[in-house]
Structures are given as C-alpha cells and as structure tokens.
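Lecture notes, continued. The same structure-token format from the folding unit now serves as the input rather than the output. Read the line below as a description of shape only.
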C-alpha cells in the first residue's frame, strides 16, 4: 500500500457544502441533485514546498530552519481558516475574532500543513457531512455527542419543537454527524464513490489511505477531531440518483456541540441550534424562501431567512410553552453564537451582522414574553408575517 502522503486530489465537497449546508438554501420539497462529473488529479510524488521534506523523511527534520517552520505555521492557520470559512458560509469581514475562533485555533494548534492538506484533498473534511446527509435517514437509534451526552436533551427538544410549531414535521429526520464514521472502511468507500464517482478499487484504495492517515496523524484524533463535524444544518427532502430520495433532515455535528460546551454553553447551545434549524424547516414548508425577493442570490435574501430563523428560535426558547429558558442565559449564548455572523453585505451568503441577528432574536423574545400570561403560541405563518413587517427596522443601521 502506498503512503497516503504521496496522493493528491481536490475536494469538490466544500463547494457543495457551502451550497447545501448551514445556509439552509432553498430547495423544492423533492428535487433532483445531479451527481457531478468530478475530475481529480493525482501525482506519484507530491511536490512539497521547501521544508516539508522533513514531513516525509525524519532524517531531514533537523535541517529545517526554525524560521521556515514558523512560516509554515502561519500558512497552515490561514489555509485552514479559509476551509472553515467556506464550510460555515461566512465571508471574511471586518468583524473581530471571536471566542469560537479562539477555540478553533486552539484545537488546530498541532495541525501541520500536510495534515490540513490531506484532510482536505482526501475528502475527509466532507465525508462525515455527506454520510449523515445521504445515509442517516431515520431518527431512530441516533445519539448526539461523541459519547451520547446530548441525546436526551436533543430528542426532547426535537419532540417539543414538533409540538410547538404548526407545521407537518413528522417526516423530518433528526440525525447526528459523527467523525468516527471515518474509521469505517465501508462507509468511506460508499461516500468516495458518490462524491468522486470512483470505481470500487480506487475507492477502496482511498479508504485504506484515510485509515492509514488516522493511525499516523495524532492530530486527527482518530477521526474525532471537532473540525470534521463542525456544523449543523437543515435540509428539505430531495432526490439524489445514487441513493434515491433523501428525507427532510436536521443534522447536528458533534464538533459544533463540543465547541459550545467548551465555551460553557452546553446547557443551552444544543436546544438553541436545533431550534434555529427547525426554523428553516418552517420556512421550507411555508414557502418563505420564495417570497418577497425575486433574486435569491442577493445578500438580503439569505439575511432575511437567517434572521427569521433566529427569531423563531428565540421565540421558542423563551416562550412559556416552549423551552422556558431564562432570556439572560439565552442572550449570553446568542452573543457568542451570533458572533459568527458576518459583515460582508455584498456576499450572497450574508447571514446578517451580529447586531442584526441579536435584534431579530430579541424581537422573537419580546413576542414570546408578551404572550406568556395567556400562554398563546403564535402560528408559524402569522409569526413570519409579523417578522417581515418588522424586518426593515431590525436591519436598519
């Protein structure tokens, strides 16, 4: 078996990831997702930058100047931040670094350039996402968190959300995204064949290379590094020829839950993120992605749907018949969560600035707070109509 470090292939998955994930892009209730004709380049010998010979030949390690190693570290940080940015659909902006940024940086301190490069070009960064998207098609038997530590709260919140909002939610699957799928050779092979259209021998070879990489690169944590599952997303049902009909889903990654637990928000983050993604399913069913703006590729379109999902989430979290969380605690989490909002007003994936997202959430909270005495739960369409009326004020400078 050849050494996994001698291989190169571009990952197309991040491009599709940016389209399908986190932005909760509009889709028909059942649509066809064409399998792309993916071209991949391989080289028998990877042409490494100066200094990386020591990564392959340990005898040369001592000959690598310290200055070069420092430069490599800077390149690594910049390169990987770009990968994270694409995966989370957040454009570069003038916003300040956040607590979440600092946590990610700390988790990636031991990643060298080749660790990053191979994870991206082998498909490892994409495989857990698409394994969950294409093959986790039932809520039964799911566990959340690497050790199942969030299972009870996630299952309860999902059941409460389906009761709380007036949509047909029985067909929505709540599924987990686990990095440990990278340890499963059969899963690697089937995802490789779907994403890269490989024949079986080629897919088997890539699976073996990834398994070898997990053994040789401690930084990967045997596939359970949070960066492999640093996401949560909503997806309406669609038809994808290689696998058939994929049902409507909410996917929760271990990595994003781990991150907010590390920041001290394990008591609110799972419910808040799930409520936000459920808000996108309300929008899917009510056709709210089609309303109001003819051009869905302009920043205002994504901003509207993201801010509305924030408001749906805050309304549920603070409502007397919802999660009944204390607003101050929810607000503390949202200030951190919304810090991943961006200031790239011209970006079609614009989620809204942190201030705009907090304004939308506070609007949802105030609406819930005013209904506490009578215990009335507003209908999902009525809520959307009121939000659209308030939107110009919420996004005003």
């Amino acid at each position: 078996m050849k050494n996994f470090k001698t291989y190169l292939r571009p990952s197309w998955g991040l491009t599709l990831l940016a389209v399908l994930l986190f932005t909760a892009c509009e889709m028909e209730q059942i649509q066809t997702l064409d399998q792309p004709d993916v071209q991949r380049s391989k080289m028998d010998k990877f042409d490494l930058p100066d200094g990386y010979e020591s990564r392959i030949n340990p005898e040369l390690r001592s000959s690598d100047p310290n200055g070069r190693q420092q430069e490599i570290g800077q390149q690594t940080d910049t390169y990987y931040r770009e990968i994270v940015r694409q995966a989370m659909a957040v454009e570069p902006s003038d916003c300040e670094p956040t607590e979440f940024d600092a946590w990610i940086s700390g988790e990636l301190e031991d990643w060298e350039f080749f660790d990053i490069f191979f994870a991206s070009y082998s498909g490892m960064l994409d495989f857990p996402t698409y394994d969950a998207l294409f093959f986790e098609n039932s809520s039964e038997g799911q566990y959340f968190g690497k050790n199942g530590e969030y299972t009870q709260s996630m299952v309860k919140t999902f059941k409460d959300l389906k009761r709380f909002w007036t949509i047909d939610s029985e067909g929505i699957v709540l599924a987990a995204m686990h990095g440990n799928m990278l340890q499963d050779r059969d899963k690697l092979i089937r995802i490789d064949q779907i994403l890269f259209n490989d024949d079986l021998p080629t897919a088997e070879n890539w699976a073996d290379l990834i398994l070898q990489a997990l053994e040789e690169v401690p930084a990967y944590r045997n596939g359970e590094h949070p960066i492999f599952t640093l996401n949560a997303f909503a997806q309406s049902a669609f038809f994808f020829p290689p696998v058939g009909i994929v049902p409507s889903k909410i996917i929760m990654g271990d990595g994003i839950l781990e991150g907010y637990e590390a920041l001290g928000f394990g008591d609110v983050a799972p419910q808040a993120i799930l409520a936000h993604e459920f808000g996108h399913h309300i929008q899917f069913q009510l056709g709210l992605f089609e309303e109001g703006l003819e051009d869905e590729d302009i920043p205002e379109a994504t901003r509207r749907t993201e801010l509305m999902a924030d408001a749906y989430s805050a309304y549920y979290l603070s409502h007397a018949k919802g999660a009944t969380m204390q607003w101050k605690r929810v607000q503390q989490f949202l200030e951190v969560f919304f810090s991943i909002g961006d200031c790239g007003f011209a970006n079609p994936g614009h989620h809204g600035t942190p201030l705009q997202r907090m304004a939308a959430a506070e609007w949802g909270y105030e609406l819930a707070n005013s209904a506490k005495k009578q215990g009335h739960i507003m209908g999902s369409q009525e809520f959307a109509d009121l939000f659209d009326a308030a939107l110009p004020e919420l996004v005003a400078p």
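Point for the exam: The first helix runs from residue 13 to 20.
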